[in-house]
Amino acid sequence: PDHIVAVDGDHGRIDSFEFRSDALDSTRRIRVYLPAGYARNAERYPVLYFFHGQGMSAQDMVLAGLALWGPMNESADDEKLLAGETDFQRAIIIWVDGECKEGDCWTGNFYADFEGQPQDDRRYEQAFFELMNLVDERYRTKTPELVKLNEL
Fold first, then answer.
1. Rounded to two decimals, what is the model's pTM?
2. What single DSSP character describes residue 107?
3. Which of 72, 78, 84, 126 is the most buried (most CB within 10 A)?
4. What sign has the CA pseudo-torsion 128, 133, 138, 143?
5. Are the beta carbons of 79 and 61 closer than 8 angstroms?
6. Ordered DSSP codes for 58-106
7. pLDDT tens across 131-141, in order?
8. Nearest-CA neighbor of 18 among 40, 2, 38?
C-alpha cells in the first residue's frame, strides 16, 4: 500500500510505493516527490524521472533530486514568496529503481532491454514505460508539449 515516508508542511512531500513490473517479473520500490501545493489544487505537473547509476538504488538518488526542492519553493520576488509562489516550475519527481538484483543482470542495465544478450528476458526499457503509465494514472501529470525553438 502507498504511504508517506516524509512530510515537510507546505514544501511538498515524498511518497513511496511498490511497483510491480510485468516486464521484469519483479516488484520495485519507487520514490515520488509531490511539490508544494499538490494536495491543495487540481493543477497538473510535469514529471522528472531520476535514474541512478550502476550499483545504486532509487533511495541513493533521493538527496540528489531534492536539490531541486529549494528552487521549487523560492522566489526572488518577496511578494511571490509570501504568496507561496515560485520562479521555478514545480514538478513531480520520480526516483526509478533499476538496480540489478542478484541473479537479475549479467551486467549493468542502463535502463535498456537485454535483447540478444545473455538474460535477454530482462526488459528494463519496457519496465520504464510500465512505470510511466502507472505514474500518469496515479498522479496529476502534465502532458508533454512540443515547443518550436523560435517561440522560446
1. 0.72
2. S
3. 72
4. positive
5. no
6. HHHHHHHHGGGTTGGG--SSHHHHHTT--SS---EEEEE-----TTT-S
7. 999 999 999 99
8. 2
| Cα angle for residues 38, 99, 115 (degrees, 5° grid) | 110
End-to-end CA distance of the chain: 42
Handedness of CA 33, 35, 37, 42 (dihedral sign): negative
Residues 6+ apart with CB under 8 A from 137: none
Please give the grid coordinates belonging to residue 62: 533521493
Q: What is the pLDDT of residues 44-90, one digit of tens each?
A: 999 988 877 666 666 667 666 667 766 676 767 788 777 777 777 88
Q: Which three cell numbers stand for residue 135?
A: 505514474
Cell of 117: 544478450
Cβ atoms within 10 Å of 89's Cβ, excluding its own: 13
Query: CA angle, corner 106, sides to 101 and 52, nearest 5?
Result: 50
Strand 47-51 versus strand 13-21 pairing type: unpaired
Q: Write out the three cell numbers for 2.
A: 502507498
- DSSP per-residue string spanning 11-55: G-EEEEEEEEETTTTEEEEEEEEE-TTGGG----B-EEEEE--TT
